[in-house]
Amino acid sequence: MPMVSVIIPVFRAKSTLERALLSVKAQGWPEKDIEIVLSIDDGENYNWAKKYGSHIKLCYGLAPATGAGPARNRGILAASGQFLAFLDADDQWANGYLDALYPAAKTYGLAFGQTVIHAHDGSRLMRLGDAADQNNSQLKIDDFGHWPGSFHPLMRRQITPYFLNQPAQDVFHAIESMAAIGQQAPLVAAARYQLNLNTESVTASAGFSHRLDRSYRQMGQLVLSGQTQVPRASQHRVIRALQNRRNWNQRFMRDGHDYPSFYHFLADSIA
What is the pLDDT of residues 204-218, one digit of tens each? Predict the structure, then answer.
């Protein structure tokens, strides 16, 4: 049984998947300790990806374009690792990502790294979770409202909830996972997840901000009605974080017309 399964949802990713796979390989872990689960959601043939290691597993849905949430759920079901990590097909891990995260995840069950966002031209745009002292700190539920971007966990398989099938499901998965074990989790400064903005991604499509606003509202309703793994003691903080994310998104819809992406707007606003 591998120690870590890396779940990568794959949709129209032939031009970026190699970079993601190479970043996992560059972690330097033995193949017996890590597997990569490619959850194919576009119906295309990705058998070529197996040349990057015997530890790569492909899984398919019954139909294409089910969405990132269902694709990640199929990856969870196909995974055999003791811990699960999540990587998007157009993103990558910095060297040493797993070595930095694994000890904290092993101790606490869940740990996050910082998210470094690169613009479409490859330039570094901003970093989420940038602790002032650059030492390991704690990521709190409130931080998901302060930094309205994605944080990607390494977590024990047993405590991993399934993903919703709606926009920002990865964000809610991270919040729900944290709330289930407490109201904070280690934020490891040495672990860097590089998010690469893509002009062809779903988040760049017309109307996405409006769909995202509805999704945050629906997530709050699910939490309040007890249909998630968020404990009652954490419900108020989770709902407040989701509302703060709605506020950021609504500000972008109102004032962000001159920015090429939400993250460009966020970087300028936080600065």
Answer: 666 899 999 999 999
The DSSP bridge partners found for residue 140 are 184
Mean pLDDT of 190-208: 83
* pLDDT tens sequence across 35-59: 999 999 999 999 999 999 889 999 9
| Range(s) of the chain covered by CATH 3.90.550.10 | 1-92
Residue 164 neighbours by CB under 8 Å, 6+ apart: 69, 172, 173, 219, 222
Strand extents, DSSP E, the chain: 4-10, 34-40, 56-60, 83-86, 92-93, 110-118, 124-128, 137-140, 153-156, 184-196
Separation of alpha carbons 48 and 63, rounded Å: 21
Cα-flanking dihedrals φ and ψ of residue 116, to 5°? -105, 120
CATH of domain 1-92: 3.90.550.10
Cα–chain-centroid distance for residue 208? 18
Please give the full DSSP string across 168-227, using - where no structure is assigned. Answer: THHHHHHHHHHHHH-SEEEEEEEEEEEEE--TTSGGGSTTHHHHHHHHHHHHHHHHHTT-
- Which residues, including other chains, have CB under 8 Å from residue 222's CB and lie 6 or more apart? 164, 228
In whole angstroms, give the CA distance from residue 41 to residue 55: 20
Burial class (CB in 10 A: 0-12, 13-18, 19+), 21: buried
C-alpha distances (whole Å) from 262 to each of 124, 189, 246 are 15, 24, 13
Structural contact between residues 216 and 245, judged by C-beta atoms closer than 8 angstroms: yes
